[in-house]
Amino acid sequence: MKFKNEKFKLVTPTIKYKRKAIKYIKEHNKYNSRINGSGLLYEYINDYESWLKKLDYERNIVKDNVFVPNETYFLVRENDDRIIGMVNLRTELNERVKNSYGSIGYGIRPKERRKGYNKINLYLTLLECQRRGIKNVVLSCEKDNIASSKSMLALGAVFDKEIFNGIQKKFYEFYRIDVDYAVGAYKDTYEKYIN
Ligand SMILES: CC(C)(COP(=O)(O)OP(=O)(O)OC[C@H]1O[C@@H](n2cnc3c(N)ncnc32)[C@H](O)[C@@H]1OP(=O)(O)O)[C@@H](O)C(=O)NCCC(=O)NCCS
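^ thats the input. predicted complex w/ coenzyme A below
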């Protein structure tokens, strides 16, 4: 990790972060980057208030065959209150989500990548899982998304399977993390980044 004196937290989006959230998305657009874990914030860039309402709705979804409840967070660096990344945690899974998006979607803003921040993002998300009693998570990524698979592996992910998606015409890798194991095993590495 690059900066040892930095601290991070997951923050539930509120109106207070409106300006910063819009800048976060605009930075991705400027760098022509994909955006993950944002709860589709990029579709609401002109209507942040409706996005907040959407998040309220989504956290209370009753799981069915298609939809699952989920929670979106900003990864915030406490030193300057900057949004560094985002994460979407599916708090329950159905078969469809288990075999596609998995439990967690994440992203780091383009200018802050390759500093170890997504590993902190994932560690904080695993802590949140632990708080909620979620024991196991499933993670998926495109096979060539090395930054994503390495983030998972850094937190103790175990390879599960590879699937070819005929519609996307892409290979996807699936991993599993035992939440209690990972939090215990990587506590010494990541706790220093949390207040
Ligand atoms: C994937 C993503 C979240 C990684 O964020 P990041 O903060 O740059 O990742 P980290 O710095 O924590 O690095 C995690 C690991 O990936 C490696 N890594 C990061 N970027 C890499 C790259 N471009 N090429 C190869 N390895 C890379 C790091 O070296 C680290 O591995 P290590 O533990 O062996 O050192 C970020 O690239 C991103 O937001 N991408 C667009 C959205 C996306 O793809 N989300 C995931 C969808 S499954």
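Residues 33-34, 36, 106-108, 113-119, 141, 145-148, 150-151, 154 surround coenzyme A (CB under 6 Å).
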